[in-house]
Amino acid sequence: METARKLHTVYRSINKPLTIWGVERRLFFLALLMGSATFDFFASLAGGAAMFGALYLLARWATASDPQLLKILLNSSKFKARYDPPSTPVFDLGRISKDGETRERS
């Protein structure tokens, strides 16, 4: 017995990231906050604008390449690495001679 195909409507706006001026909103507000902090710290409007502009361009590139990049970077510290060479146990290698004695490797 064949089952009928079900069609579900999916709206494009559900899957699009929320952006402001083409930048993911959290990255935009981070750039805005860092620009204003630079302005307050150095008392330079040009410095604050330059900081905002540089971070805005970096955020625009990050949003264009992968909108979830910030989320991945922030969550990456919570998970263990799959392979961590320094955490593997150290074992000694020895060689058995023809007469049956074990000699340690130096």
Brief overview, please?
With 106 residues, the chain is mainly alpha-helical. The protein has a domain at 17-70.
Please characterize this protein's 3D structure.
- The chain is mainly alpha-helical.
- The chain has a domain at 17-70.
- It has helices spanning 12-15, 25-42, 45-65, 69-75; strands at residues 19-20, 23-24, 94-96, 102-104.
- The strands form two sheets. It has a two-stranded antiparallel ribbon.
- Strand 3 (94-96) and strand 4 (102-104) form a beta hairpin.
- The radius of gyration is 28 Å and the shape is flat.
- The mean pLDDT is 79.
Give the tags:
single chain; 106 residues; mainly alpha; two-stranded antiparallel sheet; flat
Radius of gyration: 28 Å
Total of helices: 4
Q: Judging from the principal axes of the Cα atoms, what is the shape?
A: flat
Give the termini separation: 73 Å
The major sheet is characterized as:
2 strands, antiparallel
What level of helicity do the residues show?
Answer: 40-55%
Percent of sequence in beta strands: 5-15%
SSE-based structural type: mainly alpha
